[in-house]
Design goal:
Distance between the termini: 30 Å
Number of domains: 1
Strand order of the largest sheet: 1-2-3
Radius of gyration: 14 Å
Largest sheet: 3 strands, antiparallel
Mean pLDDT: 92
Helix content: 40-55%
Number of helices: 5
Number of strands: 3
Structural class: mainly alpha
Low-confidence stretches: none
């Protein structure tokens, strides 16, 4: 597993926006031979499995009013080791997040 410096993406067509808007956390980015992804937290992955999968957690988030622009939702996806491309699609592509342009970090 290779750790990737965030500066690698500063001029990337899609990922530069993630790096700019999400500079408030230092979640590690890795490449295990299949492209850049957030480094997974095995404890969070086990918790997701114990709760019956990601869809159950997403439904819970919706019921609590937690949106894709919430830090909790984004941190979950980082902690399960989501790929940067998939993360961009879910949180930054307006086709999947109509309020993507409104995201502001907590800091």
């Amino acid at each position: 597993m290779e750790t990737i410096n965030r500066d690698t993406f500063k001029d990337h067509e899609l990922f530069a926006e993630i790096m700019k808007k999400e500079s408030h956390h230092n979640h590690e980015i890795v490449d295990e031979g299949h492209g850049a992804r957030w480094k997974e937290d095995p404890d969070v992955c086990k918790l997701v499995d114990d709760m019956g999968g990601l869809n159950n957690i997403v439904r819970l988030f919706f019921s609590l009013g937690i949106t894709k622009n919430s830090e909790e939702w984004r941190q979950l996806y980082r902690d399960i080791g989501y790929s940067l491309y998939g993360y961009w699609e879910i949180f930054y592509w307006d086709m999947n997040n109509k309020d993507a342009a409104d995201y502001r970090s907590d800091c």
